[in-house]
Design a protein that fits this description.
Helices cover about 45% and strands about 5% of the residues. The radius of gyration is 31 Å and the shape is flat. The strands form 2 sheets. Strands 1-2-3 form a 3-stranded antiparallel sheet. By secondary structure, the chain is mainly alpha-helical. Helix 8 (about 220-230) packs across helix 13 (about 320-335). The protein starts with about 20 loop residues before the first strand and ends in a 25-residue tail after the last helix.
Amino acid sequence: MPRRPNGLTPDGVRMTKIPLRYLKIEKDRHGNRRVYVRRNGKKIRIREMQGTDEFFAAYRKAVERLAPEEAPKVTPGRQPFPTGSLGWLGTQYFASDEFQALDAQSRRNRRNILDACFAETSISKEGRPVGFCPVHLLTSQTVKALRDIKAKEGRKGAANNRRKYLSSMFGWAIETTPPLMKSNPARDVRRIKYETEGFHTWTAEEFAQFEERHPLGTKAYLALALLLYTGTRRGDMVTLGRQHLRDGWLRFVPNKSRKQTKTVVLSEKPWLPILDAIVKASPTGDLTFLVTEYGKPFTAAGFGGWFRDRCDEAGLPQCSAHGLRKMGATRAAENGATEHQLMAIFDWRTPGQARIYIRKGEAEKAGGRIDGASGDGYGIGTKVAHLEMAHTWPT
């Protein structure tokens, strides 16, 4: 087929060269010319014949698509909280060293809760946000009203969080120099008592079901073992790697205590032989045992979503990463771990949490004695028999 002379349209009409600002000509690896519109670091290929109406239409469309995003329209913002108001106190608190010392997730959660308090309008006769209330007019009734908004919604945990974080902010304000408050109006507001099971605690049968779907040698099984046998939170577990191992011990600084204490608190746990064997039989990364499909370490949130999918694949929608931590605590208590041993294993700073599992472990043992069983209470099968030794920690 004869080639058309350069600069002519299919009808033989000579094209007029029009400079187009974003038009670029490139060659592919075979030497063929490719026409692109390049703008803002991105490009779109134009396949229409140059000089035609279709070409110019495609060019204009590509230029528009690659245009920089318009800056969001500025809407009149809310009136800034006046000096001496509750909202103003919040801005001072958010900029304080005490608040900034919290980890990123804690800062985000606490700020969202406090900002929601400042924006509440239902307890004001004028319908104004509570954030405009002068600090010196705050009373325990104000804090109670903010707490009870969530309690009436059936969210007692959220209600207690409002009380707790307001109290923390007021405590900081009292200790500043000069003090920004004279007393803590949240001090006399009680915490709402309620019972909750929290995250579901895995059973041995559920462990076996997960193992059936994700056997030894898979990344999912490695995650299961790391959570169970190290007793770590998921935010710490995703950071663990061989650099944390030495002389049969796992040593690292927990994220939760990294910014909550003035001194470095090192967590030290025995590296169990069974976990060592699982790691050696599993695919691992260079700096972290667990890595994403792109070879990068997981974030805590990213791992949570990924592990959620693995549980769903195993038909365990009720199970979660935190539930494995609870299973480990229960097993350790059943095997005779003391309060301080549990605190060391699970990085708890007070014995209160440990006592919960010790009581539960004692109840499991007693139940086994009542029905004449071995005291295991879980009916462990051969696939999960290693759980018997999972938390027989050195004393």
